[in-house]
């Protein structure tokens, strides 16, 4: 709804679009670069570009996927331009580690925290593509179609990546109850 109104020239819709997506975009972008200023600048540039090219934007797009993909491109472009002068996660081994919020840390017991820590270590062993697909699917709560569009892969490949990543985690954490594993991935 905000997208259509924004394209029609509504500045309030532009603000709402920004406010609804800024935290998710920052969380996603920070997985590619340790340079928080670079991530913030890329998000800023993304929204400036949206505003500048508003009249040329398509009305019927998956807005979330469009924003994620655009941010991903901007970050990669900035990283290439700046070369090694910035601190960057290895793009082949992006860190899509689980981040626990303060509420989770307060509520769960030490045993649960150890389990979550172990899961985090196992997530780091997954390929960067598997980490990214899990992050987008479960943390960002995107559909398979949206994740596939962002990662520029087919929906079938996306489903396979999710399946294999979860299967690998299950094998590595076979002594952990499946519900605990599932909940820890979803609520991260």
Give me the strand/helix succession: HHHHHHHHHH
Describe the largest sheet.
Answer: none
- Principal-axes geometry comes out as elongated
Task: Please mark out the parts with pLDDT under 50 across 5 or more consecutive residues, or reply none.
Answer: 84-94
Strand content: under 5%
- The secondary-structure class comes to mainly alpha
For the residues shown, what is the average pLDDT? 81
Radius of gyration: 18 Å
What is the number of beta strands?
Answer: 0
Helical segment count: 10
Q: Helical percent range?
A: 55-70%
Please outline the helices and strands.
Layout (H helix, E strand, L loop, with lengths): L1 H6 L3 H19 L6 H17 L10 H20 L19 H6 L2 H16 L2 H12 L4 H8 L3 H18 L5 H9 L2
Helix pairs in contact: 2-3, 2-4, 3-4, 4-8, 7-8, 7-9, 8-9
Description:
- It contains ten helices and no strands.
- With 188 residues, it is mainly α.
- The chain has helices at residues 2-7, 11-29, 36-52, 63-82, 102-107, 110-125, 128-139, 144-151, 155-172, 178-186.
Q: What is this structure, in a nutshell?
A:
With 188 residues, this protein is an all-alpha fold. 70% of the residues lie in helices and 0% in strands.
Based on the model shown, name its key terms.
188 residues, mainly alpha, 10 helices, 70% helix
């Amino acid at each position: 709804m905000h997208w259509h109104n924004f394209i029609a020239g509504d500045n309030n819709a532009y603000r709402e679009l920004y406010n609804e997506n800024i935290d998710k975009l920052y969380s996603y972008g920070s997985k590619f670069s340790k340079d928080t200023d670079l991530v913030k600048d890329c998000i800023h540039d993304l929204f400036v570009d949206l505003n500048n090219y508003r009249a040329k934007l398509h009305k019927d797009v998956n807005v979330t996927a469009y924003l994620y993909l655009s941010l991903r491109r901007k970050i990669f472009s900035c990283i290439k331009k700046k070369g090694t002068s910035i601190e960057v996660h290895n793009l082949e081994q992006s860190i899509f580690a689980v981040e626990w919020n303060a509420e989770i840390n307060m509520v769960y017991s030490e045993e649960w925290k150890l389990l979550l820590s172990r899961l985090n270590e196992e997530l780091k062993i997954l390929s960067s593509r598997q980490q990214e697909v899990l992050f987008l699917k479960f943390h960002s709560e995107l559909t398979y179609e949206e994740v596939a569009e962002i990662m520029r892969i087919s929906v079938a490949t996306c489903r396979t990546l999710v399946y294999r990543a979860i299967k690998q985690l299950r094998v590595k954490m076979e002594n952990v109850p499946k519900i605990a594993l599932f909940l820890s991935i979803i609520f991260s």
